[in-house]
Amino acid sequence: PKDPAIMALPEEMRGPFYPWKLGCEDGHVWEHYYRQMRQNAEDKPEDPAIVTEGDCGSGAHGVTRAWELGDPEASGVEGVTDADWEDVKDIVARAITEHAKTHGTVPGGWVEWANALLTPPLIQWDQLLASHLRWGINDASGMVYHSYQRPSRRQSAYRDFVMPAMRRPIPFVCIIGDTSYSMSLSRLAYVRGIVRDICQSLGAKLAFLATDAAVHGGVQMVHDGPNVELRGRGGTNMCVGIDYALTNVYPKPDVIVVCT
């Protein structure tokens, strides 16, 4: 890409290059002249009223020039905001794809850009869920603490002093399952599968809340997916289930998973 600082130089300093245009001697390498050209461009004061010939501004090279009014949202002047630019890109991409269906004159790079912009991103939700769940479980299971429920394994060395043992808790997970009418039978089966997988990975029970616009059946302590009772089938408000998990589930969950 063309250097904006070089493009801002006067016309007589562009085109065929000669060292005398910069006031330099012959015989130096190109990097020496390049640094001198940038220095000349930086030393030259910019007049906002004068637009240098050949410099199209930040719309061409991304460098804000002195005569530009700036971001419409910051300066208050009328212009195209970032949100408007996204709409323009979407409109152009759709026009390119429509034109490419009937005409073979659209450049392949344009078509690839339009398809990439209009194609929804493919999110591997199961891998994303597993990584976040591992992080939350490892964070909770790593918090060892002292407990007097069992004597210390070094108690014989302390004689009359009762020392606590170190305990590593099993993380307590609460799953909020969406049981609203918008959940199909296949998606409800996914919920059961997630419950089963988390129970197997923990080797312990977990709390399950069947939630649509309210929590139905209270807290279900389950150890496998088939044991879950999916009640509800009304509206959808997962915030109700999250609030219920934080206030009515005991002990307080270390990790909350929302399946919706």
From TrEMBL:
InterPro entries: Put_metallopeptidase_dom, VWA-like_dom. Residues 174-256 form the VWA-like domain. Pfam families: DUF2201, DUF2201_N. Residues 29-164 form the Putative metallopeptidase domain. This is Uncharacterized protein. It comes from marine sediment metagenome.
